[in-house]
Specification:
Helix content is about 70%, strand content about 0%. The longest helix is centred in the middle third of the chain and has 28 residues, at about 120-145. It is built from 9 helices and no strands.
Length: about 200
């Protein structure tokens, strides 16, 4: 029986495999606890191949986290644009929260490592956050123009919404019990949406 040789992977596939391995290792061991030898081994490539694709370990971290933020916020804004109404924020929050377990590694890298690396924060801010805030701002401006949201600064509203989502996105390790049930996540999503839409002051 003839064994077929596995076709060589493209440079793009190799690069992506390195990033996937890095995402998992950075999330489980932390950036400082992961060596380039660890990364190469987990990705199934030679250490030299690693450096052919990335200048150094920090460059891999920046790429992993930047891609992660783009994926997280693109998914959020896509769901936001597809809401049945401008008040259906709770449903969007709930779906995002229920999917957090699928992206646990990515969330840990995006939220935790960015705190310790200024160059990573700067790139995420310039390449991701500013652009995504502009998209969200346009969405909320439209809602204001239609009389659904009260007139206020749409940029601030967009920043508050994205910040609220960031808290909800990491809530399984901060403001919610580990292993929270779908019902608890629903209650959290509805609570955040209610505060976002109605504020916290009692009505006169």
């Amino acid at each position: 029986m003839r064994i077929l040789n596995r076709p060589p992977q493209s440079e793009t596939e190799t690069r992506q495999r390195i990033l996937q391995a890095a995402q998992h290792l950075f999330a489980t061991r932390g950036y400082d606890g992961t060596t380039t030898r660890d990364l190469a081994s987990a990705a199934g490539v030679a250490e030299g191949t690693l450096f052919r694709h990335f200048e150094n370990k920090k460059a891999i971290l920046i790429e992993v986290a930047t891609q992660g933020w783009i994926e997280i916020l693109t998914d959020l804004l896509t769901e936001l644009s597809e809401m049945g109404s401008y008040k259906a924020v709770a449903q969007v929050m709930r779906r995002r929260m229920l999917r957090m377990h699928e992206n646990a590694d990515m969330m840990k890298v995006c939220f935790m490592e960015a705190q310790f690396h200024p160059e990573l924060r700067d790139r995420i801010q310039s390449e991701v956050i500013i652009k995504m805030t502009d998209v969200a701002e346009a969405f909320f401006q439209t809602a204001m123009d239609r009389g659904i949201y009260r007139r206020t600064n749409p940029k601030i509203v967009a920043q508050v919404f994205l910040g609220m989502f960031a808290v909800a996105g990491f809530s399984h390790e901060t403001i919610m019990e580990p292993g929270a049930s779908p019902k608890q996540m629903q209650e959290m999503a509805e609570g955040l949406a209610d505060i976002f839409l109605n504020g916290v002051l009692a009505k006169d």
